[in-house]
Amino acid sequence: SKPKAWVSRPFFPDIVDRLREHFDVVQEPEERSFTPDELAARLKDADAAIVGLVDRIDAGVLAHAPGLRFVANLGVGYNNLDLDALTAAGVGASNTPDVLNETVADYAWALMLAAARRVGEAERWLRAGQWQGSRFEGWLGADVHGKTIGILGMGRIGQAIARRAAGFRAPVLYHNRSRLDAAIERECGARYVDKATLLAQADHLILVLPFTPANRHTIGAGELKAMKPTATLTNIARGGIVDDEALARALAAGEIAAAALDVFEGEPQVHPALLEQGNVVLSPHIASASRDTRRDMASLAVDNVLAAFGHGPCAGRPPTILNPGVLADAS
Ligand code: GLV
Ligand code: GLV
Question: Where's the D-isomer specific 2-hydroxyacid dehydrogenase catalytic domain (predicted)?
Answer without folding.
Answer: 11-315
